Amino acid sequence: MDHNRLGLTSGLGNVSIDSQGYLAPGDGRGIEMTGNVDITVTPPDTPRYLNRTYTRNLTMDRDRNLTVQLEKQAVGSPDISAFDVSATGQDVDLRFESNEQLSNVTVELGGDAAGTLTLADFSETNNSGTYVYSADVSSGRDGTFRATLIRAEDADGDDGASGRSESVTVDTEAPSVNVTVRDATDGNGVVNDGDEVRIEATVVENVTSVANVTADATGLGAGVVELTRRSPTPTPRR
Hints:
3 domains; 0% helix; Immunoglobulin-like; single chain; four-stranded antiparallel sheet; mainly beta; 16 strands
């Protein structure tokens, strides 16, 4: 913004505007000046507006209001990419990218996560015109966590969600194991040559399946042995 009065020209540089479009260089709105004022307006760095410069000249001899209408261009629905649910330890996060700024986001959580994420739950970073959105999904527990993008709208209401969904499984806790060793020959607790020793292990795993269970029976002369899986005995129906 350039100000010319009595033949002298001074530049005010970039002046901020508030959320309603008013000049707000300080705590209040507006600037007090007289003389000729050249105003240059450039649109925000987003594909929604044409990349052009608007110049206006005002003679400030009274209170004046100036409205500059930015010319829009059709960009269609937001292009959503890199939609991903990831985990570091038990910290589960959701991240995705958009080619334009979003004004409305809805993500439904599922699996061992519950609830809905909205735009207020996300942090937003503008990386040279690519908008990166990140949010917390869960922390402090194991499980399978799923996120489904329900809505991703721009300022015009165009939706680029497409219902995409991603999930991640967190399994940081070891299974609980209860082991019993018994003398299967005579049950006297004394193992002699030729006696049969039975090793049983009850394994509880709440997130993923148990691939195999081995026991070190070197002290019994058997080395490392793999235990045979036995399904739980079903409860009889009455």
